[in-house]
Amino acid sequence: MIQAFAFYLFAVVTIASGVLTIGSRNPVHSVLWLILAFFNAAGLMLIIGAEFIAMLLVIVYVGAVAVLFLFVVMMLDVDYSELRAGVARYWPFGAVLALVLLAEIIFAVAAWNAGGIATGVKAAPVDLGVPNIQALGTVLYTRYLFIFEGAGLVLLVAMIGAIVLTQRRRRGVRPQNVSDQIRRRPQDAVRNIDAPVGQGVEL
DSSP 3-state assignment of 83? Predict the structure, then answer.
């Protein structure tokens, strides 16, 4: 009874938060609703026993991605009138894309209810004596090892590309010379002056 109540509570709040994330006119409010949706999705993962995915949702998505979105939205000077004009201009394309995604979801649910492709089993067998974190790690580092390493290489290339783009040479900007700063002596940077009383300091 308590599990069913918790499931419906988390599910309703997650769906409502997702709708408010899309429907809010203020981007800051949208990010806050998104954080609430992540927290409730983590609660759903805890109910089904996937505590590792729940912690990932809280630590990675709420602690990093959503907070980063919030900082970016708060630092940007967003013109809401121009933003609404862009939404009104592209709503036919967005409606077509939403219909395509809805058709894919319906097709996926129908295929899942129809049973497995080869064996007729909907889910992989799970050993109840093995924690899900250990089972997930075993699958990642055995069956999907090359895919896991490939994802790491893609992230490494993306990180290097971001660093290269931000470290490009710009004209009219004085770069920081670390070696000159290290070689600088205190007597070259500080000057002691015995200023008389009632007079200013000459620079």
Answer: helix
Number of H helices, E strands in the chain: 9, 0
* pTM of full prediction above 0.85: no
Q: Please report whether residue 156 resides in a domain.
A: yes
Residue 144 lies in a domain: yes
Instruction: Give the residue carrying structure tokens 């419906």.
Output: 8
pLDDT tens, residue by residue, 172-203 = 777 778 888 888 887 777 777 777 777 766 66
Closest to 33 measured CA to CA, from 42, 45, 43, 23: 23
Using alpha carbons, select from 95, 104, 82, 109 the residue that is nearest to residue 27.
82
Instruction: Work out the angle between the directed axes of helices 2-23 and 27-47 (0-180°, nearest 10).
Output: 160
Domain count, the chain: 1
- The pLDDT tens digits of the residues spanning 86-125 come to 666 777 887 888 898 888 878 877 776 665 555 554 555 6
Q: Is residue 10 part of a domain?
A: no
Give CA–CA dist 60/62, Å, rounded: 6
CA distance 84 to 88: 6
Other Cβ atoms within 10 Å of 137 Cβ, number: 12
3-state secondary structure of 195: coil
* Segments forming the whole domain that contains residue 142: 129-171
Q: Classify residue 123 by its DSSP letter.
A: S
Residue 157 located in a structural domain: yes
Enter the DSSP assignment of 66: I
